[in-house]
Amino acid sequence: MNRFIIADASKCIGCRTCEVACVVSHQENQDCASLTPETFLPRIHVIKGVNVSTATLCRQCEDAPCANVCPNGAISRDKGFVHVMQERCIGCKTCVVACPYGAMEVVVRPVVRNSGAGLNVRAEKAEANKCDLCHHREAAGCMAACQRTPSSAWTAISSNS
């Protein structure tokens, strides 16, 4: 079954509430107070035009092109959603090129690594970033947040509907 969320461009007001909800949903402490410009990495993006706004999201493809081209097998389909296993991702961007919806991106996250000399060193890791339907929650955070805005532009889609 293919489940995904779609934003209705005729209703979206471009408020970016969905982006904030996405980031907070994936924060360890689910608190926006700890966010910085470096850690604000939404898995969805609102695109604003002159007269229209909409969000780009992963369509959770049945035969996901991003998963098919990943050289490390870091992207897979499990329990109805396509997800990235960050520990396997090398940030090569082949998934970004393969995605027909422009819903994948590679972001750089700060990490702390052991230097081998007993010192922790700050470093960066490039990794794929995409909507995972908030698989760790009962419902997608972005969807719930959009439902509370005046536009309520988001709809959950299922191949059964």
Automatic annotation (TrEMBL):
Recorded GO MF terms: 4 iron, 4 sulfur cluster binding; metal ion binding
Name of the molecule in the record: Electron transport protein HydN
4Fe-4S ferredoxin-type domain location: 2-22, 80-109
SUPFAM superfamilies: 4Fe-4S ferredoxins
Keyword Iron: yes
Keyword Iron-sulfur among record annotations: yes
Organism (species): Salmonella enterica I
Annotated keywords: 4Fe-4S, Iron, Iron-sulfur, Metal-binding, Repeat
Gene3D superfamilies, alphabetized: 3.30.70.20
